[in-house]
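Deliverable D5.2: sample structural annotation.
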Amino acid sequence: MSSLADFKLSVSAAAPPDRLAPPLQAMWWAAKGDWHKAHGIVMAEEGGDAAWVHAFLHRVEGDNDNARYWYRQARRPAATVPLDAEWDAIVAALIEQPAT
């Protein structure tokens, strides 16, 4: 995935693009409105990126206490921007990371 715009376009498909890292897969499913699938993906993952997405998902859910816990795990400040702006910021940051 080369850009945020490309990622957003991919959400119209039935399945996420091949070879997306799990945190990006979760953000893709979140954009599709499948919170449970997105949450299941990040629950199975470790690391700061998954924790950041996990925090976002709990914010979407309205569970701000749990979201704050996951922001701490991600070593990121708790978001105060609208959810769509945070979704954009997370996806853009994850896309910009070098492939591993």
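Annotation notes: The helical segments are 4-10, 22-31, 35-43, 48-61, 64-74, 83-96. The chain is about 65% helix and 0% strand.
The annotation will be released with the project's public dataset once the embargo ends.
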